[in-house]
Backbone:
DNA sequence: GGGTTACAAATGGTATACCATTTACACAAT
DNA sequence: ATTGTGTAAATGGTATACCATTTGTAACCC
């Protein structure tokens, strides 16, 4: 558990699960509080299963209860917290089974993204994804797990974005957000790093060839490997690492 | 446009997009308001593109602004309305392109559901889906489009539920909610009714054979047919039916 | 020691007041 | 007739008060 103090309110820029800087759209306080809470969940400041005291947290973030309540509504709809009537909010704590289910969904979403990206990506988008891939390889050589994880996520988001299917992008982001913390934590313990790199090589090759069906297959299988890593990590944590 | 007065508050039972009666869980007023608003959107009482006046509507539904605001937050997170800072809520009005994107996502979700249902469905679940299919055939013979549509949706939800993938069920429901109104409206004009029945026959055959890959393929293709119907309907409405 | 009950405090849900921003409309100028 | 300006009303965003429900703790009894 990290002992960091609560973050100041999110300004709308960050490299969390949704990754995008929303500089163009003005945000309400409730939206900014929601973004801060997302961060706090991902980084275990608000650990899974913990109670979220609305008044306490509003005080810490120096906002009144109303935007805090609205923020918690947002997060509840996103399934990052569970709101129990008259009992308040609990940070979601996905079981291994639920993680597995989510990953199977993410697998088909990424497969669809792969197929549509192979057809629709601009050349510039391909180049950028390739550049991210090289940066990720560099972080692998440096054994910098945090940067590696973030770049890995950026590549996947880049592929989804290159599908030019906006609805898919949003739904993918939402599923990803539910999995982000678990994957972030499991990345710290990843013992199959080298195999993941090989898979990414294959992904990039199929993408550069614009081979939709092959890319779809590899990306779906890649999420199968993710399950393998994540389940190891969950198992290790449950047995008191 | 229908001229019905606003619904009284949802009690938590209904056959709208999420279909389930949540009798076991107590609901807050905000949740009940959200459910009523969903209904009003689906049934065009709140038409696409229309402004949602929070005070006006709260008055009509005889609730105060606070649960109305929370309800609108829920719907905004679900993308059924769009909340613009300082400007309020507008009912979502998905473009033809967006509908197409959503249907492609729904296609892969239903394909995954088909595969997992073929593996995981109980015999009782299969029997129930078959019963719904026969009821749907009966409504086809009676030319009862509304009942046909609802049964059709129940069959799809039944297949998703039979996958025993709870995460998939939720995500499917959410995508479906965004499409529900458009499909409901297009069902009223469906000129390819007979072909849809044939597709459903194939779906049921593959499901009963527990042939996962075949079921997946047919269900995904079925959504392709749905796009064909929906786009005809959108085109017809845009040209002043 | 364990179980039950009563009550105060904590906390969630809603209503309403107040402030901030946008919209609509009347009037003046060109 | 059209455009620009000012102002009041409408409406969104937040703060706070009040009510409803839950939780925690102390006292009592077996």
Residues:
């Amino acid at each position: 558990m990290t002992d960091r103090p609560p973050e100041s309110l999110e300004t709308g820029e960050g490299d969390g699960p949704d990754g995008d800087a929303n500089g163009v759209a003005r945000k309400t306080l409730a939206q900014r509080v929601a973004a801060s809470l997302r961060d706090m969940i991902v980084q275990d400041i608000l650990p899974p299963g913990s109670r979220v005291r609305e008044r306490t947290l509003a005080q810490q973030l120096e906002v009144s209860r109303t935007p805090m309540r609205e923020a918690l509504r947002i997060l509840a709809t996103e399934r990052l917290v569970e709101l129990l009537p008259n009992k308040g909010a609990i940070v979601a704590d996905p079981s291994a089974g639920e993680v597995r289910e989510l990953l199977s969904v993410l697998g088909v979403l990424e497969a669809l993204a792969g197929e549509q990206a192979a057809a629709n990506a601009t050349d510039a988008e391909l180049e950028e994804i390739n550049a991210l891939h090289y940066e990720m390889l560099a972080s692998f050589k440096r054994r910098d797990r945090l940067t590696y994880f973030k770049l890995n996520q950026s590549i996947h988001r880049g592929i989804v974005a290159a599908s030019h299917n906006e609805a898919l992008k949003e739904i993918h982001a939402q599923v990803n957000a539910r999995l982000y913390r678990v994957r972030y934590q499991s990345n710290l313990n990843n013992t199959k790093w080298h195999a993941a790199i090989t898979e990414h090589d294959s992904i990039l090759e199929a993408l550069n060839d614009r081979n939709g069906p092959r890319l779809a297959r590899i990306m779906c299988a890649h999420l199968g490997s993710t399950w393998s890593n994540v389940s190891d990590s969950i198992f290790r944590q449950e047995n008191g690492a």
